[in-house]
Specification:
Helices cover 78% and strands 0% of the residues. By secondary structure, it is an all-alpha fold. It has one domain. It is globular and about 50 Å long. The protein starts with a helix and ends in a 6-residue tail after the last helix. 40% of the residues are buried.
Amino acid sequence: MKRVANQLFACILVNSVYEMKNYPVVLVNTVLSPLSFLILIFFVSDGKLLGDAIEGGLIMTMFSSGTSLQSDLSHYKNDFKLQDIVVGSPTSAAVYVGGMAISELIYSAPAIAILVVLFDLFVRASPLQALGIAGVMVLMFITSVSLGFALASISADIVQSYAYTRLLSTLFSTLPPVYYPITLIPLPYRYLAYLSPTTYASELAQNLAGLLKLPGSTLEADWVVLLGLSAVFLYIGVRHARWREK
């Protein structure tokens, strides 16, 4: 247990603490990315969608934290050959990826803290509602981490990895109705939004906070789809990612 804890701590030091300590300017982008969309939605809606935008910022931060894992793993794998060292050590793939995933959350902690404070001030959900929303965020993070690990294992270059990250961010956290309710999308185009897992997460979070009223059947379907997608992406990340070169 102590060895696993030391391995996790080493991953956190390498991937978040070192960078945050030596290059604090990198935290600016982490904080500004979700807040910039929040501010935009706030002004466009005259403040009416502030609660939706705050929850959207949390979803975007959790999803981006997971997909950022892909760029970092690819960087360490291809540029520093760190994965080769880890493969030859007693550290397992699960511990390595788990430590790196935790480091991404620590790296995103300033943005998460600001959004949580805004959530408490303006959304005012009950403890039970907040717990449900936290569960949605955890599922969103697991989904993105699993997807990021799978893509990182097949990425041959850091430039390609950055392209994957930007593409995933655009498709899953910018275009879908994350910062606003899906009801604002005209019905003929609304079905396209359901191609993104973040749509199901935002519907659940908005409903739990009382920002969007949905029938019970829709909520049940959202939970089933989100849990199913998390399981599928986790399976792909664990079973089909290339941990060792053949």
